[in-house]
Amino acid sequence: MPKQKSIFARMSRLDADLENAPDYESWRQVAQEIDRATGAAEWQEQTSPAIYNARLLRAESVEMGRRRAAGDALGLVDAVESGLRRHRGDLAAPELYTTA
Length: 100
What we know:
With 100 residues, the chain is mainly α. The chain has two domains: 44 residues; 44 residues. Helices cover 73% and strands 0% of the residues. Helix 4 packs antiparallel against helix 5. The longest helix has 18 residues.
């Protein structure tokens, strides 16, 4: 039982840290720690080509980040809309929603 309490206490602390993060970078670091603690980080690293094209999604994500960093709002909107249209069927795959 003490181990359960320590895990619960850690997750409670991380949830509070996430809620009170002063900026995006702090929030992202806490979110990544939560992912590691819950096993979500391992799940995120797994790719399943039968469900979605992980390589294409990563490339699109990099492109969106590049446009965001460049301040190209219209280009970013275009990239997001194109990606959503391209992956509409993939997003509906029930397998994507079996792990929380």
